[in-house]
Amino acid sequence: MISFFIYLAQRQGFFGQLYSRIQEGGPFSMTIIILLFFLMIFFIVRAGMKLRTSSHVFKKAVYLVNQVALLALIIGLFSQLIVLIGVFDAFESLGDVNPSLFAGGLKLTLLPPVFGGFTFIIGRIATFILNWVRNAELDKVDMKA
Protein backbone atom coordinates (compact mmCIF):
# COMPACT_ATOMS: atom_id res chain seq x y z
CA MET A 1 0.00 0.00 0.00
CA ILE A 2 2.82 2.39 0.83
CA SER A 3 4.48 1.67 -2.50
CA PHE A 4 1.21 2.61 -4.24
CA PHE A 5 1.19 6.03 -2.54
CA ILE A 6 4.85 6.54 -3.41
CA TYR A 7 4.01 5.69 -7.02
CA LEU A 8 1.14 8.20 -7.03
CA ALA A 9 3.35 10.89 -5.51
CA GLN A 10 6.02 10.37 -8.16
CA ARG A 11 3.61 10.07 -11.07
CA GLN A 12 3.06 13.32 -12.86
CA GLY A 13 -0.59 14.06 -13.56
CA PHE A 14 -2.17 15.57 -16.65
CA PHE A 15 -1.79 19.17 -15.53
CA GLY A 16 1.77 18.61 -14.37
CA GLN A 17 2.62 17.12 -17.74
CA LEU A 18 0.86 19.99 -19.50
CA TYR A 19 2.76 22.54 -17.42
CA SER A 20 6.10 20.91 -18.21
CA ARG A 21 5.29 20.89 -21.94
CA ILE A 22 4.35 24.56 -21.77
CA GLN A 23 7.68 25.35 -20.13
CA GLU A 24 9.57 23.29 -22.71
CA GLY A 25 7.83 24.94 -25.66
CA GLY A 26 8.48 28.46 -24.48
CA PRO A 27 6.26 29.98 -21.80
CA PHE A 28 5.48 33.19 -23.69
CA SER A 29 4.12 31.74 -26.92
CA MET A 30 2.57 28.73 -25.21
CA THR A 31 0.77 30.96 -22.71
CA ILE A 32 -0.63 33.05 -25.56
CA ILE A 33 -1.82 29.90 -27.32
CA ILE A 34 -3.46 28.59 -24.12
CA LEU A 35 -5.18 31.96 -23.57
CA LEU A 36 -6.40 31.89 -27.17
CA PHE A 37 -7.71 28.37 -26.56
CA PHE A 38 -9.77 29.57 -23.60
CA LEU A 39 -10.96 32.60 -25.59
CA MET A 40 -11.98 30.27 -28.40
CA ILE A 41 -13.94 28.09 -25.95
CA PHE A 42 -15.71 31.24 -24.75
CA PHE A 43 -16.61 32.17 -28.34
CA ILE A 44 -17.81 28.61 -29.02
CA VAL A 45 -20.17 28.76 -26.03
CA ARG A 46 -21.30 32.22 -27.10
CA ALA A 47 -21.97 31.02 -30.65
CA GLY A 48 -23.90 28.08 -29.22
CA MET A 49 -26.14 30.48 -27.34
CA LYS A 50 -26.74 32.46 -30.55
CA LEU A 51 -27.99 29.50 -32.60
CA ARG A 52 -31.53 30.86 -32.74
CA THR A 53 -30.62 34.48 -33.51
CA SER A 54 -30.47 36.10 -36.92
CA SER A 55 -28.07 34.79 -39.52
CA HIS A 56 -25.51 37.61 -39.41
CA VAL A 57 -25.20 37.48 -35.60
CA PHE A 58 -24.56 33.73 -35.68
CA LYS A 59 -22.09 34.04 -38.57
CA LYS A 60 -20.19 36.73 -36.67
CA ALA A 61 -19.89 34.45 -33.63
CA VAL A 62 -18.65 31.56 -35.78
CA TYR A 63 -16.27 33.93 -37.57
CA LEU A 64 -14.74 34.92 -34.22
CA VAL A 65 -14.19 31.26 -33.33
CA ASN A 66 -12.44 30.67 -36.65
CA GLN A 67 -10.27 33.78 -36.34
CA VAL A 68 -9.09 32.98 -32.82
CA ALA A 69 -8.32 29.37 -33.80
CA LEU A 70 -6.36 30.53 -36.84
CA LEU A 71 -4.47 33.08 -34.75
CA ALA A 72 -3.41 30.33 -32.33
CA LEU A 73 -2.09 28.24 -35.23
CA ILE A 74 -0.19 31.18 -36.74
CA ILE A 75 1.36 32.13 -33.39
CA GLY A 76 2.46 28.52 -32.94
CA LEU A 77 4.11 28.43 -36.36
CA PHE A 78 5.70 31.86 -35.94
CA SER A 79 7.14 30.97 -32.54
CA GLN A 80 8.51 27.75 -34.05
CA LEU A 81 10.41 29.77 -36.63
CA ILE A 82 11.80 32.10 -33.98
CA VAL A 83 12.95 29.19 -31.80
CA LEU A 84 14.42 27.38 -34.82
CA ILE A 85 16.55 30.41 -35.62
CA GLY A 86 17.82 30.41 -32.04
CA VAL A 87 18.51 26.66 -32.14
CA PHE A 88 20.45 26.92 -35.38
CA ASP A 89 22.44 29.89 -34.07
CA ALA A 90 23.35 27.93 -30.94
CA PHE A 91 24.38 24.88 -32.97
CA GLU A 92 26.40 27.01 -35.34
CA SER A 93 28.38 28.43 -32.43
CA LEU A 94 28.98 24.93 -31.01
CA GLY A 95 30.50 23.57 -34.19
CA ASP A 96 30.27 19.76 -33.99
CA VAL A 97 26.78 18.92 -32.71
CA ASN A 98 25.62 15.66 -31.19
CA PRO A 99 22.57 14.32 -33.13
CA SER A 100 20.64 13.68 -29.91
CA LEU A 101 21.13 17.31 -28.89
CA PHE A 102 19.93 18.41 -32.32
CA ALA A 103 16.87 16.14 -32.10
CA GLY A 104 16.05 17.51 -28.64
CA GLY A 105 16.21 21.06 -29.97
CA LEU A 106 13.92 20.20 -32.86
CA LYS A 107 11.46 18.52 -30.48
CA LEU A 108 11.21 21.71 -28.47
CA THR A 109 10.45 23.74 -31.59
CA LEU A 110 7.53 21.46 -32.47
CA LEU A 111 5.57 22.04 -29.26
CA PRO A 112 4.01 25.47 -30.06
CA PRO A 113 2.73 24.40 -33.51
CA VAL A 114 1.26 21.25 -31.98
CA PHE A 115 -0.63 23.25 -29.34
CA GLY A 116 -1.67 25.82 -31.95
CA GLY A 117 -2.76 23.07 -34.33
CA PHE A 118 -4.75 21.39 -31.57
CA THR A 119 -6.51 24.68 -30.87
CA PHE A 120 -7.18 25.16 -34.58
CA ILE A 121 -8.61 21.66 -35.00
CA ILE A 122 -10.89 22.05 -31.98
CA GLY A 123 -12.11 25.38 -33.37
CA ARG A 124 -12.80 23.94 -36.82
CA ILE A 125 -14.65 20.94 -35.38
CA ALA A 126 -16.70 23.27 -33.20
CA THR A 127 -17.65 25.50 -36.14
CA PHE A 128 -18.60 22.43 -38.16
CA ILE A 129 -20.85 21.21 -35.34
CA LEU A 130 -22.34 24.67 -34.76
CA ASN A 131 -23.17 25.09 -38.45
CA TRP A 132 -24.61 21.58 -38.57
CA VAL A 133 -26.83 22.22 -35.55
CA ARG A 134 -27.84 25.61 -36.94
CA ASN A 135 -28.84 24.08 -40.28
CA ALA A 136 -30.79 21.35 -38.49
CA GLU A 137 -32.62 24.04 -36.48
CA LEU A 138 -33.43 25.95 -39.66
CA ASP A 139 -34.68 22.77 -41.36
CA LYS A 140 -37.07 22.18 -38.45
CA VAL A 141 -38.40 25.73 -38.79
CA ASP A 142 -38.87 25.32 -42.57
CA MET A 143 -40.79 22.06 -42.08
CA LYS A 144 -43.20 23.69 -39.64
CA ALA A 145 -43.96 26.58 -42.01
UniProtKB/TrEMBL annotation:
This is MotA/TolQ/ExbB proton channel domain-containing protein. The chain crosses the membrane at residues 28-49, 61-88, 108-133. Keywords: Membrane, Transmembrane, Transmembrane helix. It comes from the Bacteria. It comes from Christiangramia sediminis. The lineage of its organism: Bacteria, Pseudomonadati, Bacteroidota, Flavobacteriia, Flavobacteriales.
